[in-house]
Amino acid sequence: MKGVAAEIIPDFPDSLTPTVIMYKDKECIKKVQGLAEWGGSRVSADSVEWLLAELGVVLD
Length: 60
Prior knowledge:
This is Pdcl3 protein. Belongs to the phosducin family. The protein is α+β, with helices and mostly antiparallel strands. It has one domain: Glutaredoxin. It is 23% helix and 22% strand. Strands 1-2 form a two-stranded antiparallel sheet. It is flat. The model has no long low-confidence stretch (mean pLDDT 85).
């Protein structure tokens, strides 16, 4: 999904984008919100892969 955060979810702050919400068996297991959790302004595909591996979403 792509769009202005506050237009998609009313009052959703831009500071929490990007946000990824991970579910398992219909239960929210983790929310990763804001650029800092993804590696800051230097976020890369490698840092995203590392974080998802740490969370057990992707396997080595």
